[in-house]
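User: Thanks for the earlier help. One more: Benzil reductase ((S)-benzoin forming). Can you show the sequence and predicted structure together?

Assistant: Of course, both are below.
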Amino acid sequence: MNAVIVTGASRGLGAAIAEQFMDRGFAVITVARRENEPLKQKAQKLKLSYAHLTCDLSQFDGQQDLTRQLKPTLDKMGDLEALYVVNNAGVVEPVERVGKMSPLEMKRLIDINVLAPMVLTNHLVQLFPTTPLMIVNVTSGAAQHARHGWSAYSSSKAALNVFTETAALESKATGAPHTFIAYNPGIMDTDMQGVIRSSDSQAFQDVERFQEFKEKGMLRSPERVARALVSLVLDNRDIKNGQIYDVNDLLKGNA
């Protein structure tokens, strides 16, 4: 059995990724505070193994609860041949200047964007030392450069990139059958983009530019971005361990 775990799968990119894996016949475990009912119904229609784990990844107890539930859930699905994991859950708030941010919002962002994928990845590497793992950490182009109002978000994605690269380096050294990559999905038509567009211009100087992306139809659909990712990890025989992949490169010539 091939299985995938997708965090933040209640909507947007996470839901689209889970659906794409279903179309490839994978057993699917979704992780979010709320279950996506259409995904559940699709799994039933396709007669695929499916489970939803309700977790609040902004809480350490929720992260620990997730790790406790995974092995029993996977065991019920059958003998595992390979496990794919997409650490997709993420938040952009606080969108604010340094000196104006809420410490509680900063902590929540780091817990979801950085600590949750680190905890989950660490647990799975311990749990499956000889099972092929493909860990995909959803990152952002914001990790590569400073952007006004995004100090917390950009820093969290930069941290996730280094974690990805380091985990890959270590797996190569030990010879473990584990692959770690990061995936930049670019700009999509999701709820997160709605949050960005509603930001105050003093907190986020580029707000008008992001509003223009929506007005001019420049946002890709989550479904298209998800297809590019799933094709990358399932159809590409030359995946580079530790690589940060960009959807724009994958869709080049097919924008």
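User: Great, one quick takeaway?

Assistant: The mean pLDDT is 93.
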